[in-house]
Amino acid sequence: MNVEKIMQELELKHPGEVEYLQAVREVLESIEEFYNSNPQYEKAKIIERLIEPDRVLIFKVPWEDDKGEIHVNIGYRVQFNNAIGPYKGGLRFHPSVNLSILKFLGFEQIFKNALTTLSMGGAKGGSDFNPKGKSNTEIMRFCYSFMLELWRIIGPDTDVPAGDIGVGAREIGYLYGMYRKLLMENTGVLTGKGLNYGGSLIRPEATGYGVVYFTQEMLKTRGLDIKGKKVALSGFGNVAWGAAKKLNSLGAKVITISGPDGYIYDEEGISGEKVDFMLELRASNEDIVKPYAYKFKNSVFYEGKKPWEVPCDIAIPCATQNELDKTDAENLVRNGCICVTEGANMPCTPEAIEVIQKNKLLYAPGKAANAGGVATSGLEMSQNAMKLMWSAEEVDRRLNEIMKNIHSQCVKYGTESDGYINYVKGANIAGFIKVANAMLEQGIY
Ligand code: NDP
After folding, report:
1. What is the CATH number of the domain that holds 173?
2. Catalytic one among 88, 124, 229, 367?
3. How many structural domains is the chain composed of?
4. CATH no. for residue 213?
5. Are residues 70 and 133 in the same domain?
6. Hey, which residues does 199 pair with through a beta bridge?
7. Nearest CA to ligand 1 atom 34
8. Index of the ligand 1 atom closest to the CA of residue 289
9. pLDDT band at 285, cuts 50/70/90?
10. 3 Cβ contact partners less than 8 Å away, ≥ 6 residues apart
11. DSSP designation for 117
12. Whose CA is nearest to atom 42 of ligand 1?
């Protein structure tokens, strides 16, 4: 494989799809050496077949607001690769959603899902619909309209969507309701469902818990413990909340959270009722973190700034893509940070990753560290298929095991000659091998 040549051709075919091109380049560069020393992959043109999605469904989503006005949004489902199992990946409702972002997320999802060792292919979907400020009935009408198209290409053994930014339990409920009505069936066609109709215990916390389990494993490789470590988190959504809960239970201290308006620094630690308050902030229509500083007087709000300027032992970006850049990475290194774990998908820019890895910090890419979310979705699918429900302890135990296993795979394929573990390389190669071998075994279609 010649990465530059492939990327040039891809850029010509998909001009302007910046996030997608960035994600493909990162994977290709990290597996290039391995790929080229295993000619069976080149012979079967695995890379050329892997970097284009199997299919993309784009559809209009008309809906009526509470005043009777009609709106039209765009809906997408990118089915990227199902060589190892049904397509699986979340739905994102956010005004920034476009084809490039969903292709980047769907492409990453292939490797992430393979790493979990569960049988799940890669997909992603969503809409440029903005749920913020909408009433429950408006959200319901939008979700119903979205499902009136999506149902055609999903199914419990075909494609199993889940939540992502802007799609939580409420949206999944409405989407599931319309699917059930249309198909007259109760199946595991969506994950992240409510506990009353087939959801799994621990799913809401799973991504954050998994991020922390992975961080623990990384620290162990240097003989370190998470207890007593100061942790800077960004975001204040689902992933940040789960991570904060688990960090506190393990004796670490969470000192920051952030929103699009700025970040909160709380020297005393964000624990107990303060973590619960994150959910209230998230549920408010304003969706900003500033109110935290009004409520908890010893905390400080830094408007328009990011938490990466605060001295910390561990940084866990949990908000969105490209939120931690080169300058932020330099600040973290200068302030003695030892570990950066990606809770969000692709939160570090390529320049930031270069700084972090050059300085030999522990660094985990999202596709390995945040795979606990989709892994627990996989566990939800298993419970649905068996028509039973595991206890929270059972799900948590399996999640922990899966995260340890992902870590071992990264160590196996990512350890470099000087002993440094390149988790990007390790995760990409381990995920690639599983999918590529399945593709080889099944022929070219
Ligand atoms: P949420 O929407 O629950 O939370 C994200 C939070 O971060 C929101 O409060 C958002 O505010 C805020 N935010 C957005 N942009 C910024 C920014 N630039 N700086 C600071 N805060 C910001 O999403 P999730 O927690 O579910 O997801 C977060 C990330 O984790 C995404 O990248 C997602 O793809 C990834 N992920 C999520 C999984 C899950 O199970 N939920 C699984 C694996 C990955 P606002 O809404 O105003 O933009």
Report:
1. 3.40.50.10860
2. 124
3. 2
4. 3.40.50.720
5. yes
6. none
7. 345
8. 9
9. low
10. 25, 28, 29, 32
11. T
12. 373
